[in-house]
Amino acid sequence: MKQTKVKDSAKSFERVLKKSLKEKYVLRLYVTGMTPRSTQAIQNIKQICDEELLGRCDLEVIDIYQRPVLARGEQIIATPTLVKKLPLPLRRFIGDLSDKERIVLGLDLRPKK
Amino acid sequence: MKKETKKKDRHLLQIEKLRLRLEETEETLRAIREGQIDALVVSSPQGEQVYTLKSAEQPYRVFVETMNEGAVTLGLDGTILYCNNRFAKMLEIPSDKVIGSAIFRFIPSTDRSGFESAFERGKQQVTTVDISLKRAGQELIPVHLSFNMLHGQEMPVVCMVAMDLTEYKRLEEALRQLNAGLEKRVQDRTAELEKANETLQAEIVERKRAEEELQRAYARLRTLFDHRIDGIGIVIANTEGDILEANDYFLKMLGSRREELKAGKIRWNEITPPEWTGVDKIALAQLRERGVADPQEKEYLRRDGTRVPIFLTAAMLPGQGNEALVLVLDITERKRTEAALRRTYNELEKRVQERTSELARANTELKEEIVKRERTEQQLLQAQKLESMGVLTGGIAHDFNNILGPIIINSEMVLSDHPEGPGVRSNLELILASSLRGRDLVRQMLLFSRKSEKKQELITLSPIIKETFKLLRSSVPTTIQMELQLKTESDTVYADPSQIQQVIMNLCTNAAYAMRGTTGSIDISLDNIRFGPMDLPEPDMQPGDYLILSVKDTGAGMDEEVRTRVFEPFFTTKPVEEGTGLGLSVVYGIVKSHRGSIKVYSEPGRGSVFRVYLPKSEPGILKKAETLKPVPRGSERILFVDDEELIVHSVRNMLQRLGYKITALNDSREALKLFSADPSQFDLVMTDQTMPFMTGEDLGKELMRIRSDIPVILCTGYADFISSEKATAMGFQGFIMKPFTVREGAELVRHVLDQKQPSNEQKP
Fold it and tell me: What percent of chain B has pLDDT over 70?
């Protein structure tokens, strides 16, 4: 699991917490059918949503076999890819999302160290 | 400075963005290196191309091989490029034999065109079709096929997915059947429900009707008691005696007021007189048993104590416990009419009975009349039979008379010529006696045929009966008792005494013969009887007073056959030498000549009764018996005519001996001629009746025409055509039956001459 940069201040922590508690997340997960990483990614993000974003997560899973056109707009180069559409800034996470800590940090759900 | 700061911030922001993109790129590279992805998306002029990592195909491969549908990839010419195990199993052919084959091989010819059409369309768009696949064993399986063009390959192929519909079809059939069954059940149930609904509707209608009926019935019932109905008493009463409702007419019938009814003072068992309680008990029993009582008649006691006859009928009211509806009719008027009718009926009945008995009487009389008529017819038949026999007998008698006449006359003359000489005289006397017996026999025959001259006069019967009784008593054997009963004193009849004597003699002789060699009795009686028109014993008798001369014996009696023939001439039950068969026929003839009748009653073994009915006459001057005088004589001139030479001879001799001057001829024409020549040469003419050429009657008439005062005596041996009365009526002075004795002839001649020619009389 890779370490992310997080500002170590109580003030920013509280701000992030406060913000994360009230902000709605719009997430898009691009997969390729039932390939192993895709199915694993679906399970992982589902768990994160349930644990961290209870009630304020709008998750959409897109199979690019079925809807290949959408992949172009989002500049998807590999699957599975998770795109955080909101809150801004937009962020992409490639892989099966098995590094939960990194994802939670990347989604600004926890203050960076 | 501020500007510098802004520029610095902008640069910092760009640095931050770049850092983030770098980070992202690094992460992407790391993820690819670490194998956290399984597909790369490459943009190309044909669009986004997804390249899957080899390891990522495994789930698809497993998925396709284990799925329940057959999966096939077909070349555009229909060659099978790939099929999963399921498809091979469907066809029951190993997959290595399937791949490389043309799909059309497994399509039955019937579905070929449908398959081809769907296959062609499947090259353009997703297409489905339901057809059959042909198995190795030619068996067909229903399948649902879907075609889809698979792009993004180096070589274009068509994907075909086949779903086995066998189970589906089975289920569908089962479902269809189930559905059909269900449908039927639904229909049945619907029909049941419709029927139930109809029944329910009908029930509702019926209930409504019943309710309306009930309301009407109630209204009708109320009408009964609204006090307006007249002519019939309507009552609702219970079996205990209470009257719960009654109309005005009922109260009027009883002469009571409504207040009394309301106060419970009128109870039906109390207004019924004691003698009618039995009727009430029967009616109550009938009500309890079958709900209706037979109509009955009885009486009610009115308030004033009088009685009213009523006709009553009752029925229990359903659902009203012990209450009954009672209808009461006042039948006073009817009873009155009935009584009047009964009286009329009784009168009529009496009249009918009277009329019936009258008719019965008339009927009996009619029956008796019929019996009488039948008897009369039989008697008439018998009489006709006897009559015809009489004619026969009469003819014979005539001939006998002509034979006997000369014998008698000549015998008498010879006897008078020879008063002495024992040998000759006794022989002559025997000849005379036999001749006289013969004459008597002929007379009897003539008596029967009623052809003899009547010598009837007014006489009383009793002396003759007594005299004959004495005569009989001496000749009938003493073993036979004889009794005489004269029950009447008025016994005058117009009759010939000697004939009556003969009747009694003949009847008694027969009676004695019936009891010969045994004991018995003969009862002779005389009595009076009066016959009305309806009870005459013989049809030819006249109503009036009669004398019954009855001769009853206790002898052998007669059977039916003998009894019906006893009066026939020559019918006899006696041996030939003992009887002539003339006795009872003579009796019959005598009785008939006296305008009487004879009846016989007899049964074998019980004796016989002969009853002789003689018409009674008023007593007049009765003839006294005369004493015998000497034979009269004379000297007058007499002309005698008879066709029988013997008679001519005999009579000539007889009259000459008596002193007369006699001219005797046997031809009447000659006699007339002689007389015509000198009518005054004779004082008297005697002529026979039955002669050839000219009868005595015609001769006499002719002579009397020539000389009106010439006395003529008519002689006859056969009295069929002439009688004493007739002869007298025709102008004859005398009439005599042949054969006659010298005395008879002499007395008549003398009598006639004395009457007509007293001056010429010459005493001998």
Answer: 91
Whole-number Å distance between alpha carbons of B158 and B127: 11
Could you give the maximum distance between any two Cα atoms of chain B, in Å?
259
Q: What are the distances in angstroms from CA B232 to CA B236, B312, B657?
A: 13, 10, 125
Contact call for residues B229 and B223 (beta carbons, < 8 A): yes
Average pLDDT of chain B, as a whole number: 83
CB B741 within 8 A of CB B412: yes
Lowest mean pLDDT among A20-24, B200-204, B301-305, B624-628: B624-628
Nearest to B38 among A79, A93, A98 (CB): A79
Provide the shortest C-alpha distance from residue A89 to chain B (in Å): 10
Element (H, E) at B427: helix B422-448
For B441, list phi and psi in degrees, rounded to 5. -60, -45
**Beta strands at B292-301 and B243-246: parallel, antiparallel or unpaired:** unpaired
A chain contacts of residue B41, beta-carbon cutoff 8 Å: 64, 68, 71, 76-79
Question: How many residues make up chain B in this entry?
Answer: 764
Least Cα distance to B221 among B210, B235, B209 occurs for: B235
Q: Return the residue in B26, B29, B41 with the most chain A beta carbons within 10 A, the one to mutate for interface testing.
A: B41
Specify the pLDDT at position B673. Answer: 92
Looking at the complex, does the CB of residue A90 fall below 8 Å from at least one CB of chain B?
no
**Distance between CA atoms of B310 and B321, rounded to whole angstroms?**
26
Q: Which of B36, B52, B63 is the best mutation test for A, with the most CBs of A within 10 A?
A: B36
Contact flag B37-A98 (C-beta cutoff 8 Å):
no
Torsion angle of the four alpha carbons B430, B432, B434, B437, in this order, in degrees rounded to the nearest 10: -140
Q: What's the CA gap between B365 and B376, in Å, rounded?
A: 16
Paired tokens of B495: 């009759």
> Nearest by CB to B48, which of A2, A64, A78?
A64
Cβ neighbours of residue B95 closer than 8 Å, sequence gap 6 or more: B83, B84, B85, B87, B88
Q: Does residue B617 carry a pLDDT above 90?
A: no
pTM of the model: 0.32
The DSSP bridge pattern shows strands B292-301 and B140-150 to be unpaired
Do A71 and B32 make contact, defined as CB atoms within 8 angstroms? no
Pairing of strands B637-641, B684-688: parallel
The confidence band for B144, taking pLDDT boundaries of 50, 70 and 90, is very high
With contact defined as beta carbons under 8 Å apart, do B580 and B499 qualify?
no
Q: Does A26 touch chain B (CB under 8 A)?
A: no
Task: Return the residue of B nearest to A31 by Cα.
Answer: B39
Check whether the bond before A87 is cis (ω within 30° of 0): yes
Residue B280 tokens, joined: 């009430």
DSSP letter for B275, please. G
User: What pLDDT does B579 receive?
Assistant: 62
CA distances from B303 to B245, B249, B253, B254 (A): 18, 14, 10, 6
Long-range interactions of B377-381: CB distance < 8 A, separation 24+ = B379/B538, B379/B539, B380/B539
| Alpha-carbon separation of residue B272 from B266, B269, B276, B323, B363 (angstroms) | 11, 5, 6, 18, 54
CB A25 within 8 Å of CB A57: yes
Instruction: Please judge whether B43 and A98 are an interchain contact, meaning their C-beta atoms are less than 8 angstroms apart.
Output: no
Chain A partners within 8 Å of B28 (Cβ): 77-78, 92, 94
Q: What is the Cα–Cα distance from B484 to B465, expressed in whole angstroms?
A: 9
Contacts of A94 in chain B (CB under 8 A): 24, 27-28, 31-32, 36-37
Strands B520-531 vs B480-486: parallel, antiparallel or unpaired: parallel
Q: What are the counts of helices (DSSP H) followed by strands (DSSP E) for chain B?
A: 20, 24
